[in-house]
Amino acid sequence: MFVDFFYSLKQRKVPVSFTEWMTLMEALAKGYISTLDQFYFLARSILIKSEAYFDHYDIVFQEHFHGIQGPAEITEQVLAWLNDPATFLALTAEQQLPYDKLDFGALIKQLEERLKEQTEAHDGGSYWIGRGGISPFGHSGRNPGGILIGAEGGGRSAVQIAQERKFRNYRNDLVLDMRQIKIALKRLRHLNRIGPEDELDLKETVDATAKNVGDIELVWRRSRKNAIKLLLLMDVGGSMDPYVQTVSQLFTAAHSSTHFKDFQYYYFHNCVYDDLYRNMQTLEKVSTDHILQTLDPDYKVIIVGDANMESSELLRKNGAIYYYLRNETPGLIWLQRIAQHFSHTVWLNPDSEVFWRATTVRLVRRVFPMYPLTLEGLDQAVKKLVVKR
Amino acid sequence: MVKNIAFDQFKGSKDYVTSEALRNAVNVSIALGRPLLIRGEPGTGKTMLAHSIAKGLDKKLIVWNIKSTTKAQEGLYVYDTVQRLNDSRFGDKNVSDIKQYIKLGKLGQAFAAKEQVVLLIDEVDKADIEFPNDLLNEIDEMSFFIPETNETVQATFRPITIITSNAEKELPDAFLRRCIFHFIEFPDPALMKEIIAVHFPGLKDNLVKAAMNGFYALREVEEFRKKPSTSELVDWIKVLLASEVPVEKISRELPFAGALLKKEVDHEHFINNYMTRSGNAYIVKKPA
């Protein structure tokens, strides 16, 4: 029964390894627990290493220790279908609007109920569940109405606790590993000796001391620090909506990476024109010319965007998607200026490569080396950014 | 099977309210000798837990605060070469005795201790991304080797190790596999009441209620960059008590909201969107 429990967890894609299982066995063998309630907490603290999987754990626990079938699980295919950007692209902004604010938990619950009743999971009519199901990721707060597990005097059984499934909101089926992105960015480095002389150069000190007839002579040097400066330009146009999660992860990873000498970021809509935006909410802007003048050419530039737009947006005067932008210079020229100014630039495209045949994408690719916004793509892009020219 | 008497060691301490799940996790970690990884929102008392364990079990606490520049090596030992060179010049110590220039770091001190200690590695995610990996072996074996003196520091008593972290998905899998994990949830009102009672014994019921209502209402607001947490609530109540604001004013005006909203943008956002002028005071807008 316990072995099945382990495999059910694995089946639910909970990352649980043999090491942890043996630890649990060790704890059981030592006789630390006497009740199912204790087992619930014991096994959870040993097997599960992220609150994102507490809900999976609750479901499996219910199945095994109560003989109750867990709620209809949202299957891989359905989630994959929900995550498919193509699903969104078919919707107009108007259609999407009313569903953006729906509560994620309620939606998933609704979806579960529907899946229970239906034999056919891919119900075309529930299109909108997909939209709502994805958009609140990352900002669906937890329900403060939940009751704390094991709160004094609660007296409820472990199965009841599991049934409550109060960790539902912590589930994150879209885990794209931040750690991996950070590690990929970590390769973006060029170590130089900069800053104050705060490191003892032992070899030089010994040499100098010897020359000084044994009179101590301390020699200090600058420590090695990363000299890479990074400029990140992000497209936040409407067609980028499905990728908000991925782009913000890239941004967070770059932002919290402490190893860059300088990190600057700006936003744009579909294409870069006269201005770049510092903040999309306040529309605080900085002229692109100013950026080209003030930032040294040795900034490494990463541009993130789908490069998919009307060709006029790229090629014509006043072609910007918002008429009031009135750009005197076509977008493509701006892109070329960026590429000419900075010695190392790459374009990361979140769209899958089948969309890269579009005219505007082809034009942009002539200006910037383009890579898919995936871990492999990011790896390649980083390599491109550090090669000597 | 004999129930291990050592199991139910930790029962919380007077000034720290715990849940059953947390006590359980702490005891598992002590019994199995594995480090306990604690995660949770800021201000849910992750760091306080180690203090409470040390107090509750009457053990010495060694705190290793991790910063972005912290290296794993610093936790083990530092070889003070400069001091040794200096001494060799002025010759008032026996410089051939390298031992006196080896300074144990926090981890080293915990291993070398003559009794079991509680070791808190605070905010492990702040350091370089490779940091936890560099400590894997030492935490596993509870020992490390000092080449300079040809000595091995081996823990006679496995320290009770508490590791706190704020960030999600930052720690390497190999590291996670060795830990016991606990996620501290944000306290619900009932538990919060208990926590307040611990901090302010004998506080008036109506004040607690008014403060908690205001606090949980602010936590409902999704737009804040940093939601107020337990420690902010405790600070706020302190301010309320010190200023002797009448209770009925608390829910109407939310005075000193700055104590709850630490970020300036949040405070501004709150004033602009949730407050309205009434006479010469600002009062909370009625929910639409």
Can you give a write-up of this model?
The complex is a heterodimer of chains A (389) and B (288). Chain A has helices spanning 2-11, 18-29, 36-47, 54-66, 76-83, 85-89, 93-96, 104-117, 127-134, 158-164, 178-186, 202-211, 244-256, 288-294, 311-315, 331-341, 359-367, 375-386, and strands at 191-200, 220-226, 229-235, 262-268, 275-279, 284-287, 300-304, 344-349, 370-372. Chain A has 389 residues and is α/β, with parallel strands linked by helices. Helices cover 42% and strands 17% of the residues of chain B. In chain B, helix 9 runs parallel beside helix 11 (247-253). Chain B is elongated and about 80 Å long. Classes of the chains: A alpha/beta (389), B alpha/beta (288). Chains A and B meet through helix 2, helix 3, helix 11 and helix 12 of A and helix 1, helix 4, helix 7, strand 9 and helix 8 of B.
Topology summary:
The complex is a heterodimer of chains A (389) and B (288).
Chain A: H1 2-11, H2 18-29, H3 36-47, H4 54-66, H5 76-83, H6 85-89, H7 93-96, H8 104-117, H9 127-134, H10 158-164, H11 178-186, E1 191-200, H12 202-211, E2 220-226, E3 229-235, H13 244-256, E4 262-268, E5 275-279, E6 284-287, H14 288-294, E7 300-304, H15 311-315, H16 331-341, E8 344-349, H17 359-367, E9 370-372, H18 375-386
Parallel strand pairs in A: 3-4, 3-7, 7-8, 8-9
Antiparallel strand pairs in A: 1-2, 5-6
Helix pairs in contact in A: 1-4, 2-3, 4-10, 5-9, 8-9, 11-13, 11-18
Chain B: H1 20-32, E1 36-40, H2 46-56, E2 61-65, H3 72-76, E3 77-79, H4 81-90, E4 102-104, H5 106-112, E5 118-122, H6 131-141, E6 143-146, E7 151-154, E8 160-165, H7 173-177, E9 180-184, H8 189-199, H9 205-220, H10 230-243, H11 247-253, H12 264-274, E10 275-278, E11 281-284
Parallel strand pairs in B: 1-8, 1-9, 2-5, 5-8
Antiparallel strand pairs in B: 3-4, 6-7, 10-11
Helix pairs in contact in B: 9-11
